[in-house]
Amino acid sequence: MGRIIGIDLARCLALLGMITAHLVDSGAGGEVGGWFLVTAGRSSALFAVLAGVSIALVTRSRPDRTPTGSRLALLTRAILVAAIGLVLGIPDSGLAVILTYYGVLFLVALPVITWSAKRLAILAVSWGLISPVVSLALRPHLPASTYDVPTPASLADPLQLLSELTITGYYPVLTWATYLFAGMAIGRLDLRSATVRRWLVVLGGWGGVLALAVDRLALRSDNARASLVATYDRWEPVASWADLDRVLETGLYGTTPTGSWTWLWVWSPHSGSIVDLAHTVGSAMFVIGISLIVVKIVGRRGERPLQVLAGAGAMTLTLYAVHVAVVAAGRGAAMGEDSWALDLRVHLLGVLVVGAIFALCRWRGPLEQFVGEISTAVARARR
Hints:
Number of strands: 0
Order of helices and strands: HHHHHHHHHHHHHHH
Largest sheet: none
């Protein structure tokens, strides 16, 4: 099976969404901007689900590949991606670099790479319901998160780093494994099937809507709102539900506060609540389904132009790393003033143009080439 252009298109949209969430104006007059509301939380979740899809595709059964070889290649990939993430954490970009968390997340896939779509789907649903409860129960007994981006210096305190990567940090693996398992379940399906495309759209769309409905229903009562305000423990000043509601629109940096089980039913970007996981998995399924349908609609004649247009989706690791580096350079040069390196339009157009050039020339991204060749070489050496 060659590249599935619909998956590249979805991955391109995820990358554009993450860049938008990083750089878009959050709004004026106390209101959160519309593009931020659309992309925050959803784009990074889509990225994680697509990581699971990719793992399922590259580890599918093949005559020249054994489960042991696939696991060894994936382990190597995880180490390399985590290392790249640590290096990207060195410059002050002001961004919560996700790659080190991704590297650890890939390790979670190792025991289940041979599972069927049905077993993976059951695992994803179960994990999405249980892991937020476990997180809420464990975090009061763990060191508080530093909210620092992992760097090589973080290795000096391995217990703190492990705690943040798995439970208390920006993208905690404990809850984010839900995205990985959901993506692997999707990747085990026949993505060229019209039935699969339709069900991804229908189930994803309705799942996302129902999750938001649960949030609205759970937070209707004054008692529920009061318990959330009373237990909010982050740095923003919150004196009323109106204050907290605006904070929830901007996100919660990976986890909810503890102290009230009502946090499990709150929708907020990067909160890791049950509702957050359900909504973002649903929205990711919807985007993947729509992307696959778009490729089917354009037909064979339109596939190649679409592949070029969405070429950034085939080299997201490279383009994400460049995006982080450029933002860091812009912050260093601008010293708080406007800079072209921090301009959203520059980043969006840049990744699209670079992705199109690489797709037109049928080149792989440099980091994709680097990680892929080393992972393959390690697996072949073992065999």
